[in-house]
Amino acid sequence: MAEPFSPNPTDDFFAGGTQPTATQSKKESERIFGVVPAYSITDARNAPPLKNKDKFQLFISGTLDPFPFVVYAIQAGVEQAPDSHSGYGQGAAGYARRFGAALGDGTSARFFATYAFPSLLHQDPRYFRKGEGSGWSRVRYSVSRGFITRGDSGNTQPNWSNVLGKFGGAGLSNLYYPAEDRGASLTLSRVTIGLSYQVIGNLAIEFWPEIHRKVFGENKKQSSPPE
User: Fold this and answer.
1) At the N or C end, where does the chain have fewer CB atoms within 10 A?
2) Is residue 88, in this structure, part of any structural domain at all?
3) Would you say residue 22 lies in a domain?
């Protein structure tokens, strides 16, 4: 999955979307808002299932992309300012520990939710953009994708890969978080926060083609060439 950003859809978006062309889909799926990686997004309705090696490649692409590292660096600074995870201490060493924890959280959650569980449970980790219908139907669809997904068979299934992936990443963090930030309740809290962020991210993903065309004016008519 991509990192969450809050979308700002206009009334036009909620009046119903249009299906983007293949060229637009490829271009727009590369980066959300021009910076957020979106390797696991597709507009293809009948996309063939991914092989396990393809799911692993999605994990690698998302992990090696520079954008998450920027997010981790910012997150570490934001957490250090109020001394969150106080067991890490302050100064450069404390910042490095917080950065390492953020890196560990993101990488492990991505590994479990994009590769490990989707391969084990034969589920597709990609987000299949709805791209049409009323705006509210698309909102409902995007919100549901954290809990509903497509199986490799093409059937709709509960998104156990995503939910278990969130638990796997949050549980693994108990190995390196300070003692006071470990435990079942804190793990559940991290899972809940992760799923909430995903809802916001999915909304941005779903409406990004419209946002892109509104911002960059791709729907504007070209002036007629002189005769």
Assistant:
1) C
2) yes
3) yes
